[in-house]
Amino acid sequence: MRSALMRLSFAITTMIALAFLVPLAYVTKQIAHDRALAEARYQADAMVAALASAPGDQQGALVRAVATVPAGQSGRLAVHLVGNPTVGTSHALTGDVDRAAHGRRSLTVDAPGGVAYLQTVVLDGDRTAVVEVYVSDDELTQGVGAAWLALAGLAVLLVAGSTLVADRLGAQIVRATRKLAEGARAFGDGDLHARVEPDGPPELRDAAKSFNRMAEQMIAFADAERELAADLSHRLRTPLTALRLDADAMPPGPIGERMRQAFDALDDEIEQIITQARRSAADRQPETTDLVEVVADRLAFWSVLAEDQNRPWRVTGGQEPVYLPVSEADLVSAVDCLLGNVFQHTGEGTGFEVHVSARGLYVDDAGSGIADPDRALRRGASGAGSTGLGLDIVRRVAEAAGGRLLIERGPLRGARIAIELDPFAPEIPPPRATRRIVR
């Protein structure tokens, strides 16, 4: 933008300078031309006065009269008397002199290397004389070169000054625009504390203020949504407490114990959701979570249900940690959606496989597969009686981690749903020690 403003100012100032200076240069040349001819007329008038006082029949007196005029002293003046030799130095053509004498009028004619001013004088005895004053091209253009040079210098100074002023103004605009862009980029990258100091022209200052108001409103909206999520999660405690009382009333045994453990885990999840939801969006810092650790934790939970339903399963990979730039709660939710999808949409006894590595997380099942992947990805749309939110949650987490959600037919002839990571993404440093999946 800065260079564009400089080029625009340069172009406009140059056009304005040319529009004024070209006519001014022509006028300057014309003034010099008219000044030289005016001087020639003055010299001719002086000679006419000398002719009037000199005896007309004495050639020597005429020569002395020519010598008294500055033009005659410099060899630029001549007197043409009809029937007498020319006195002085003549430059005009004979035909032009005769034309002036017969017409008895003043003429300016071309001469070698300049022009000649011819002034006709009627002397005593009806004699006609033509006074010739020669003006060279150098005299016609005397001072024009210096004037043009001064005009050119003025034009350069104006263009340079205008361009410099445009550069200074452009630098201010560019600086304010860059600050606004950096603030918007930082806010878009997750720094919700990013604000822009109003600077620059009024329009950019107004844009910066509007951006700051927008950022505050977005944080307020996000906090309101999270408070709503916290309220909804808290409302689950009442039916959960009633179910927990029913589970405590069950006789001792593996089924009752498993139900009590499930209720404890569910209560912990609700507590975590409420805690996370009540944190302001502006107070959240970027988090890093080990995908291998989360998969290990969630497989420990889902493996119990898999054994109850006689589902064969196995896990591969997981020898090295895989760090993703997402929160642990979001990653746990995505992994649960992937594993829960197997249990919800395939019959008991259907096996599944889990593979986790730097390439991502792949969950394959031996079910019937997903007939319409596009419909499965539409939020809130489900053909199997579910909420239709699970795969959309996985998709958002995959995109936040710099990858994508993959749905295809897997090696077990059923569905393969995966969080496929970008193999060229930069490595993320570990936040803490992790453990490996061991089975």
Spell out the blueprint of helices and strands.
Layout: H1 2-53, H2 59-67, H3 70-73, E1 77-81, E2 87-88, H4 94-103, E3 107-111, E4 114-123, E5 127-136, H5 137-140, H6 144-188, H7 202-235, H8 237-248, H9 254-278, E6 289-290, H10 291-308, E7 313-317, E8 323-324, H11 328-345, E9 352-357, E10 360-365, H12 373-377, H13 390-400, E11 404-409, E12 415-420
Parallel strand pairs: 7-9
Antiparallel strand pairs: 1-2, 1-5, 3-4, 4-5, 6-8, 9-10, 10-12, 11-12
Helix pairs in contact: 1-6, 6-7, 7-9, 8-9, 10-11, 11-13
The count of DSSP E runs of length 2 or more, i.e. the number of strands, is 12
CATH topology of the largest domain, what is it called?
Answer: Heat Shock Protein 90
Work out the helicity level. Answer: 55-70%
Number of helices in the DSSP assignment: 13
Shape: rod-shaped
CATH superfamily of the largest domain: Histidine kinase-like ATPase, C-terminal domain
Mean pLDDT: 80
Q: Give the CATH architecture of the largest domain.
A: 2-Layer Sandwich
| Beta strand % | 5-15%
- CATH top-level class of the largest domain: Alpha Beta
